[in-house]
């Protein structure tokens, strides 16, 4: 109901404003140039101008209750379905290929599809092949850094259940290749492979500190079995150097609390690094003065 550039649209004009905008957007042919071969010229122009922002506006519009009413069968002339708009976007950007959109623009479409498909599953149906394209695009490893927005979009798809039909082993390979370690963690937890879950924390520099709390939880929570704890112990012993490089004092506290029988093994592993060995032993024997990180 907001007017441009300021103010509000009169309440009796709001529906008319919406339907007029949708009518313009969904114009199939260029009325000013009948020879124009491009369908949906207005949507195409907006996508070319700024695909990301146009799709953000559509995402905001999709939250309007009008779409839910239309989906429920209520007659609201001029209000399209979410599905119609999605189908047009797919036709314009993927199927017709009359204009070559950039990878970034196509990526914006895939992000939009992932999030809206997950949020509005009852009103948006997308061919499974499209989600396969989405997944392939998001997990491409042509960047030096992890694209967190892509990972978040895939996680939203996972939580919505859209990815249930995908082979989990293939999904795991793709996620690991893209360094989507939060998704890998979910897949490994489902398999109760807690040693591999820990490897996700070790590989992810942004979440490596969280490994301490996660290890402590496994070793103290009754929901984890003895084999689970044994697997965790093996993973900790094999990767104690990573824990030590992350936080020596937190590692010392962890060993004292959860692995007291492994103190000798850990200190032996550090025999060629006496400085680190000293810091570890200092943390073990004088935790109050040296500990910086409390395990939650």
Task: Evaluate the radius of gyration.
Answer: 27 Å
What is the count of DSSP helices, taking H or I runs of 4+ residues?
A: 17
What does the average pLDDT come to?
84
Share in β-strands: under 5%
The total of beta strands comes to: 0
Q: Summarize the helix and strand pattern as letters.
A: HHHHHHHHHHHHHHHHH
Roughly how much helix do the residues carry, as a percent range?
55-70%
Largest sheet: none
Runs in which pLDDT lies below 50 for 5 or more consecutive residues are: 291-296
Secondary structure category: mainly alpha
Q: Specify the overall morphology.
A: elongated
Distance between the termini: 47 Å
Could you please describe the fold and organization of this structure?
This protein is an all-alpha fold. The chain contains 17 helices and no strands. Helix 10 runs parallel beside helix 12. The radius of gyration is 27 Å and the shape is elongated.
């Amino acid at each position: 109901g907001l007017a441009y550039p300021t103010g509000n649209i009169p309440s009796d004009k709001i529906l008319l404003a919406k339907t007029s905008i949708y009518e313009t957007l969904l114009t199939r042919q260029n009325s000013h140039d009948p020879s124009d071969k491009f369908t949906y010229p207005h949507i195409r122009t907006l996508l070319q101008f700024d695909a990301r922002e146009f799709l953000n506006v559509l995402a905001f519009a999709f939250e309007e209750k009008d779409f839910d009413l239309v989906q429920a069968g209520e007659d609201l002339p001029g209000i399209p379905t979410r599905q119609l708009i999605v189908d047009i976007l797919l036709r314009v950007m993927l199927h017709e290929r009359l204009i070559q959109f950039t990878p970034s623009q196509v990526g914006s479409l895939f992000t939009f599809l992932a999030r809206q498909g997950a949020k509005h599953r009852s009103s948006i149906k997308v061919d499974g092949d499209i989600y396969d394209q989405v997944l392939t695009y998001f997990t491409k490893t042509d960047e030096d850094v992890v694209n967190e927005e892509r990972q978040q979009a895939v996680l939203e798809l996972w939580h919505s259940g859209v990815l249930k039909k995908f082979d989990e082993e293939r999904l795991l390979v793709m996620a690991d290749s893209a360094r989507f370690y939060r998704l890998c963690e979910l897949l490994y937890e489902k398999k109760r492979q807690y040693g591999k879950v820990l490897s996700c924390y070790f590989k992810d520099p942004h979440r490596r500190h969280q490994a301490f709390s996660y290890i402590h939880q496994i070793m103290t929570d009754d929901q984890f079995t003895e084999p689970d704890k044994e697997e965790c112990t093996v993973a900790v012993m094999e990767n104690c150097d990573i824990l030590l490089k992350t936080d020596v004092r937190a590692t010392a506290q962890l060993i004292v609390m959860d692995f007291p029988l492994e103190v000798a093994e850990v200190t032996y592993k550090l025999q060629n690094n006496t400085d680190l060995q000293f810091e570890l032993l200092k943390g073990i024997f004088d935790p109050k003065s040296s500990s910086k990180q409390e395990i939650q």
